[in-house]
Amino acid sequence: MHKQIYVNMPVKDLARSKAFFEAVGYKFNPQFTNDKGAGMELGENLYAMLLSEEFARTFTPKAFPDAKTATTGWVCLSCESREEVDALVAKARAAGGNIPGEAQDHGFMYGHGFEDLDGHHWELVHMSGMPPQA
């Protein structure tokens, strides 16, 4: 069905957001990056488009809620290991991100997350098996 995903996220300060995500370990595709937006590579065919709020407003007439006080959705990314989950959360914390909760271990799934500088929630999970049968 779908071959790629682009998650569009409005940000207040594009340069500051790029620096944050670079500190966490992500790279930006220069072909999709300028002073209005930045194409962040999350994995093969997985992208987050960080868009200045001014530019993002050209795509929708709706208001952008303050992601620090409202949740309209969040990004969940799979990781190769529990250690990768913890390492990315630690990098986000060191780069100025907020850690809103503790890691959660559900046996088959381990997760933890962070909020970026604009308050967007990023959840990181490692799946080591399947959930128990209901």
Automatic annotation (TrEMBL):
One of its GO terms (molecular function) is lyase activity. The keyword Lyase applies. Keywords: Lyase. InterPro entries: Glyas_Bleomycin-R_OHBP_Dase, Glyas_Fos-R_dOase_dom, VOC_core. Residues 3-127 form the VOC domain. It holds the Pfam family Glyoxalase. PANTHER family: BLR2408 PROTEIN, BLR2520 PROTEIN. This is Lactoylglutathione lyase. It comes from Roseateles saccharophilus (Pseudomonas saccharophila).
